[in-house]
Amino acid sequence: MSDDYLWNKEGEPDESVVRLEGLLSQFRHDGAPPKLESPVPDNRTPILPFAVLATAASLLTLFALFGGGEARYEVRGFEAVAALSVGDFLETSSGESAEVVIADLGQVTLNENSVLGVRGIESESHRLTLEAGSLHAKIYAPARVFQVATPAGEAIDLGCEYSLDVDNEGNSVLRVLEGRVEFEYDGRAVYVPAGARCTSVVGRGPNAPRFEDAPPKFLKLLEVYEFALDDDIDTARDICSLVTRREDCLTLFHLLDGSSKSLKEAAFERLEQMVPMPEGVTPEGILQGNAEMLLAWRDVMEPAWRSGPGYHD
Amino acid sequence: MSDETKGGPLPSVRPGSRPPEAEVPPSAELALAAARGDQQAFAQLYERFAPMVHAILVASGPRGMDQDGTQEVFLSALGAIDQLDEPDRIGGWLATIARNKARDLHRRGLPVENADLEFVPENPAEPDNSEEAELVLSAVRELPESYRETLVMRLVEGLTGPEIAERTGMTHGSVRVNLHRGMKLLKERLARLGFEGMAE
Description:
The structure holds 2 protein chains of 2 kinds.
Chain A lengths: L3 H5 L6 H10 L25 H15 L7 E5 L6 E3 L3 E3 L6 E5 L3 E5 L4 E8 L2 E15 L6 E5 L2 E14 L5 E14 L2 E6 L2 E6 L3 E2 L3 E2 L4 H10 L7 H9 L7 H7 L5 H14 L8 H5 L3 H11 L12
Parallel strand pairs in A: 7-8
Antiparallel strand pairs in A: 1-2, 1-4, 3-6, 4-5, 5-7, 6-7, 7-9, 8-9, 9-10, 10-11, 10-12, 12-13, 12-14
Helix pairs in contact in A: 5-7, 6-7
Chain B lengths: L26 H9 L3 H22 L5 H15 L9 H19 L3 H6 L12 H12 L3 H12 L4 H8 L3 H21 L8
Helix pairs in contact in B: 1-2, 2-3, 2-4, 2-7, 3-4, 7-9, 8-9
């Protein structure tokens, strides 16, 4: 069936579209105009409340970043498209690839059978979406300026080189080659340093990042149990006891914030054996998720995670 | 501007009552007039762009904050519109403000229970399909951002593809791709959830 009805409501109605329109129309905008306490201002009378003016000032700054012309990224090696602006998509087919130049910050190579979208081009924020397929990014920007969203979360560059894959379900795999990337989903963030990867599932978010060369048995058991082990502390202890390298504390540390209660407890016990808590950090604070204490303990572990060259944030 | 409109309440805008495009001046003209303090022009901009702004908040903002969030976006725009250098880009400008607003609202951390309380079906006399509608909307909100925004503009706000392109500043091709791919993904998800008639 053609998608004419979906496009402009003409042609033979698509029954499924009509049904969805009927269901979703109840969420439509109610038409209520803004509750203005004062008329639209002119330049002579600054009558808006301070909060609105403050918001407006920041928006003006944002707008000014676009300058006189439309912001766009140059596309190389792809005959059909030479540049991408906000709202544009680049779709590659089998055997095709494209290089997108991210201003003077670096570049993204879009691999075959992939879809890349541009969400925002601003001096302090470059936002892309990887809807499908895979990309390789090499970025030299201040931390958090370059971000790529996938259906399973957002990869936030902290100064790095990485690859990102999105499967047909939207699930994403991030592999960091250099530096470090933060991956966020629904308020939870994990830190993925060079040499490590994390997988994020739509609706669930990222797993604990792990180094590619971590003990195979540890990795295998985590694949099975990370989100499926609730009250089995003995199994959880067996899994965590497989960690003997200091860098694999990366995974244990992120299990403290994971979904499995028993893995959290076992990871804490193992970490306590491997990495002494700094002054002011208490077991109770860690187990209760005290953010300051967690960060302080992480600072002690983190030097072992910086396994790749080029780390900076 | 007439004295009657200056300082008075903005005209009410009802869903589905949009006048034909030909009767309303182009958006750039309205933006320039609004920047000069023409309240009627601002009201017409609101009427034209509120569904797009609302769609972005429905697609990406916390549930239950879309109506108030839409008003906040326009209040923010109101304070800055006289600085708009490229009035013909007002749609993209408002969309950027709306996306920032959606992020801000998430940061504020609205409790979910409050969000649920704000939903009221449009016509309570009709059979209550709100649960089914919420499920469908949840599936839409799990789609990639560009698809979900465009689909909400089409399926929730009732805008056509050309209207979406005109308001957002996207090309017809990009909107068409978003609608086509977004609908395909949505149908697949709904079919997995057991919705009948969603298979391609």
